[in-house]
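Methods — Computational structure assignment.
A single polypeptide chain was analysed. Its primary sequence is given first, followed by the predicted tertiary structure written as structure tokens.
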Amino acid sequence: MAKGFRGAATFVALYCCAGCDGRPAAAAEDRGPMLAADVASIGATTFAWLSGDAEIALVTSGSQLVAVRVADGTRRQLDPTRASSHSDLARSRDGTALYFVAEDLSGPQPRYTLREAFTGKQAPVGDVMNGMLAVSADAHRVLYSRANGASVLDVSGTVFPLPPPCPGWPLRPAFSPSSDQLLCTGEHAAFVQVTDGSTQTLPDTDPTLWRAIRWDASGPQAVGFGFSTDHELVQLLDVATAKARVLYETDDGLLDLANAAISNDGRRVAFWETRCVHSESFLSCQQTEARLKVVDTSTGRAATVASGAAGPGPILFSDDGARIAYLFQAGWGELHVRPVP
């Protein structure tokens, strides 16, 4: 049913675009100040706000892990090891740890290891898979991937293998505030107890459409997409109860189903909406415009923060929620930062 609704929404968006009459229309280019033009952006969130919100850590197109000062673009190297451009950066909520996957390409086969950037130390877990990472709020536990599945390294040195499935799709697993549980997505969502691997399956709310998770003392919330007969929807879901509240409905565009973000305080949600601005036929869109939307979760007020013709990418709110960082992916990602309206 959902796929059918989405198809109807796609039909409406393509047939009601501004340029369908053959007259070219330009995408609105209002991208905001650019902080970096060389962000590695291949299938991962390769940038992260650092504690205090004065800098953003990112992996460059040259596989360097650097911190860029938001005020003036000044860079400093965080770790001399080559960083993978296909893996996440995972920063703890308390700001004391930043994990990344380092890659060694000197041998016949690439070798990947887990490192913590602030101490410059390699985690004692041997070789890892190039992919998802997650770290608890207090930095006491970090999740990483091995060939036989995901595992969690505790600050004590103990490693807890996780039972399948706990995939990194569509979202990397999220730690509970106490770091004793993980919220795993995939075809079905579940709470997984870190120490013994016991699993509690959650109500079915189609977690394949979730795009952001926030977990505080009141429980986890997810930002997800939904569909009606005429529109695509952005929803805020209570994960434990499966209750959903619609925050936004599309008008003449389509939601970008890859990226969304929720602020630490839960007050704002951000996502991309795309619109066809020039099409030479009813079935082919030649020019699209991506609009970064921010919605106030209390009032439902929506604002367009940025727009442009290049493909939209990952989004991250600063810790205090006052600013938002986002990628436009044209070749290497262009990282922009703006105040939240």
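Note: The chain has two domains: 1-30+205-341, 40-202.
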